[in-house]
Design goal:
By secondary structure, the chain is an alpha+beta fold. The protein is about 15% helix and about 30% strand. The protein has helices at about 35-45, 55; strands at about 1-10, 20-25, 55-60, 60, 65-70, 75, 90-95. The strands form two sheets. The chain has a five-stranded mixed beta sheet, with helices on one face. Strands 3-4 form a two-stranded antiparallel ribbon. It comes from [Candida] jaroonii.
Length: about 100
């Protein structure tokens, strides 16, 4: 089991009953799970209403307009969806489309 922390910022917490921080357990061994598994688990376990999944996902990945950080580093610098996750990782999702 891999234990990670999920954060929703920039108004994205609306998809999880306005809860900004979540603890998530990925049911795989270290070295086997990737960011794709985190995204799937968020859709299955954290997003409160199935109708809100399109707010987070588009074309089977995090939709444009959402900044994704892995341990405070842009996920594109960390191999994006193919990043191999480790216990203790922190994944931050920030909507850049929250208005003003």
């Amino acid at each position: 089991m891999i234990k990670v922390k999920i954060e929703f910022l920039g108004g994205l917490d609306v998809i999880s009953n306005k809860q900004r921080e979540h603890k998530l357990i990925i049911d795989k061994e270290e070295g086997e799970a990737t960011m794709k598994d985190v995204i799937s688990a968020i859709c299955e376990k954290i997003i409160a209403d199935e109708k809100d999944i399109p707010v987070f996902i588009e074309d089977e990945t995090v939709r444009p307009g959402i900044l994704v950080l892995i341990n405070d580093t842009d996920w594109e610098l960390e191999d994006g969806e193919n990043y191999v996750i480790e216990s203790g990782d922190v994944f931050t999702f920030t909507s850049t489309l929250h208005g003003g």
